[in-house]
Structures are given as C-alpha cells and as structure tokens.
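**User:** Here is a favour to ask of a fellow structure person. Please take any protein you like and set down a full record of it. No explanation is needed for now; the record alone will do.

**Assistant:**
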Amino acid sequence: MLILKVLGIIILTVFSLTLAIIALVLFMPVKWKADGKKNGSIEFCAEASWLIRMLSLRFAIDASGSHLFFKIFGREPGKPKSGKTRIKNGASGNEKRSKPLKKKTADIESDCPDAENRKDSSAKNEAKGEKDDSGQKKSLEQRINGLREKWSAYSDYPYKKELMDEAMLLLARLLKAVAPKKIIGRILFGFDDPSLTGAALGMLHLIAAFMKVSRSFAIEADFEKKTLVFNIHAAGRIYIWSLLWPLLAIAASKPGWFIIKPMIFKKRKDGSRERQLEQQF
C-alpha cells in the first residue's frame, strides 16, 4: 500500500506540474513595446519579454545601423560573465593582429596555380553552372506543376465560400490578438500624387478606427509635397492561447476538417486497403 501511495503522489505531482507549465505557457503574455520617430533620420526600438523577463528580445535601428539583442535571465548567451576576460581576450586579439604577416615573393609565386590549372578549374565551374541551371529549371517546373495540382484541387473543393469566410474570421481574430493595446503619437505624410495621399489617409483612418486609437493617434496629410514625419509609441500583450484557438477553430470547422481529415487518416486508409487485398488473395 505504501508503494502505491508513493506512486500516486509522484504521478499526481508530475501531472500537476505539467498542467502548471502548460497554463504558464498559454496564459503568460508576451509583453512588447515599440518606439519610432522620423524627423530626418529614422530611429526605431522594439522590445519583447516573456515569463517575467526571463526571455527578452530587443531590436533597434539608429544612425549606426541595426542592432539585435537576445537575453536569457538578463544575460546575452555566448558572452563572458565578467569584464576582465573581455579585456584579456581583446588585448590578446590586438597583439595577434599587430603582428605583421610577412611572406616572401618566391613563396607567393609557388602558391599561385598554373595557367593550366586555372583553365581546368574554369571549365569545371562552367560545367557546374550548367548543371545548377538545369537543376533550377527542373525545380521551377516541379513547383509550377505543384501549384497547378493545388489549383485543380481547390477548383474541385466543395466548400469554397465557407472556407473564405473562415479564413477572413481567422485573420480578424489573429489581428485582434496581435493588435496593440495602446498607440500614442502623430504621423504626417504626403506623396507626389494627391489622390494617392487621399487614399492612404482614408485607409489609415479606417485602421485607426478599427484599432480604436483615433483619439490618441493623430493622422495628418500634406497634399502639396512628399514628406514623412512621425513619432509613435505602441505597446501591447500577446497571449499564446489567443493565437492557438483561432487555428483550432478553423481546423475543427467543416471546410477545415474536410482538408485535414485525409492527411490524418491517410495511413489508416492505406493499411485497410492492403488488408482487404490480402484477404482477397
């Protein structure tokens, strides 16, 4: 009885820990924020963290270029912990670099390939280039044939309208899950063509109304000249479950299940056919 009790406690502990980890992954949000501005040069910075900043990612663009930082428990993987080792490594590297590489001209001439070897290598490279071109053509033809097969399969698909409705619903749910909770700032833009500026202005106002940020985010247009000036701050939270359940919903729907069902039960059907043939013979 004591052994069964211990086994029950172990199984219950493992089960509860598994449930806790699943709940932590699904319901712990990924917090993110982004800041961008342009008044001459573009400056952008975006940060995302998960599991109480156990995992964090930072991407920045400035005048010096783009920078990407990934940290685990506040430290970048692959970097030494203390600054002393960095200084030592840097000094040794400078010493190695400071030593000039001297080589005699005779050694350089001996290392150079002959003219015949150059011709042979060029001929081999041309042959390889021809083979690569033929292989690329074949792969392109295979892709085109695959697209044709998929298009013919879609033309025979019986639930086209339902699938389009489910796809649009999936897109709306994913956009709602990823949409920022807060957007503050201002944007001023303009194109050479005033009609294009007006169309873009209407589209941006529609997006701002859909995201419910019309009051906190100012959108202005300049119809006389081409310009772009903005100062934006955005922040939000993304839950893993809010990305998974729309995918599960479309998979469980009638048009989605019609596509997924043959992929799941293909092996079973093939096995049942083989058994039927064995029974016949």
In short: The beta strands are 30-38, 42-50, 55-62, 65-72, 182-190, 217-221, 227-238. The longest helix spans residues 115-155. The CA atoms of residues 262 and 269 lie 9 Å apart. The mean pLDDT is 78.
